[in-house]
Amino acid sequence: MGILVASSAKPRRGASLNESIPQLSTLTSLLASLAKYRQAFLVGLQSNIVYRWNFAVRGFFSLFHLSAVFILWSAAFAGKTELGGFSVQQTITYFVTLLVLQFFISAFNEDYQISEEIRNGLINQFLLKPINYFAYRFSIFVAARLVSGALVFLPLLIAYPVLKDYLVMPTEGWRWAVGLPAMALSAMIQFSIAYCFGLLTFWFLEIQGFVILSFAIETVLGGQMFPLDLLPPWAYAIAKYLPFYYQMYFPAAIFTGRLAEPAAIAQGFLIQICWVIILLAVNHGLWVRGLRRHTAVGG
Asked: What would the pLDDT profile of 202-255 be if each residue is shown by its tens digit?
């Protein structure tokens, strides 16, 4: 009886060892894959640090835009203490937050970079290597936004003596815990839309018209011209179901207190995640169909 028990226990240990080998292989493959994109991130970080003054200059020019916002909204609040339920200080805080978010999560020229790589045939090198092109470009995008996001604080520090009396950020700690994930998802939406436009180069020689149209819509429906809660209720309700709402306004509204109800924030997260999934699926479809066309014409 003891011999039978001992002999039956050995195969279990051997089977467990055999089962662990594929798991170790999968883990090794995953780490190797992450190392590739980590390297792409580091290269993107180094190249963007080299051109850091481009972002710094763009940040200083943004002060002119912020000055115009300050003048226009101060005039709009003339003789009023509130507009749409918010004070002039809260509104200026919203636009300053929007400026910071723009440098942290906006896609500046990623669409044109992707378009150029497709048009010039540079995309071919990625077809011969075990590299996911979306992950590669997203790694570079994250690196670029970290550099530009850090540099935007330079002009804000210069403008702080003028702005300090108009900055009234909410003090609730939970806003950071909720706002940072919303900010990350917004960055994914921003990049996914830019990636989508870049892939249109498989069918169109120029994508500038698409990019300009999208930028114009985003400026209005993304809350960059005015806070979206100033829209009529029916228009605001429609805007909440569009991706532009989640490109910039949603995280800005969380950070600045324009969104306070847990139910509204939870609903926003759900819709935002849905848009991320939809855009990733659209990008995958465009990539697969675009490669078929690229191969068919001898690219």
From this structure: 999 889 899 999 889 998 999 998 899 999 999 999 999 999 999 999 999 999
What gap in Å lies between CA 142 and CA 45, rounded to an integer?
9
Q: How far apart are CA 89 and CA 87, in angstroms?
A: 5
Least Cα distance to 118 among 33, 38, 197, 51 occurs for 197
- For the chain, the maximum distance between any two Cα atoms, rounded to a whole number of angstroms, is 96
Provide the residue type at 104 as one letter: F
User: Residue 49, Cβ neighbours under 10 Å: how many?
Assistant: 15
Alpha-carbon gap, residue 220 to 251, rounded angstroms = 16
What residues make up the domain containing 196? 24-296
What distances in angstroms separate CA 109 from CA 126, 136, 226, one per listed residue?
Answer: 20, 15, 24
Is residue 129 assigned to a domain?
Answer: yes
Share of the chain above pLDDT 70, in %: 83
Residue 278: CB atoms within 10 A of its CB come to 13
85 CB contacts (<8 Å, ≥6 apart)?
229
Q: Structural domain tally of the chain?
A: 1
Residue 9 lies in a domain: no
- The answer to whether position 245 is within a domain reads yes
**Terminal CA-CA length for the chain:** 70
Angstrom distance (rounded) from CA 68 to CA 95: 11
Render the burial of 24-34: b for 16+ CB within 10 Å, e for the rest: eeeeeeeeeee
**pTM score of the predicted model:** 0.83
Judge whether 10 lies within some domain. no
Degrees to nearest 5, angle at CA 228 with 104 and 156: 35
Distance CA 17, CA 19 (A): 5
Report how far residue 138's alpha carbon sits from residue 144's, in angstroms, rounded to the nearest whole number. 10
As beta bridge partners, residue 229 has: none
Identify residue 27 by its one-letter amino acid code.
L
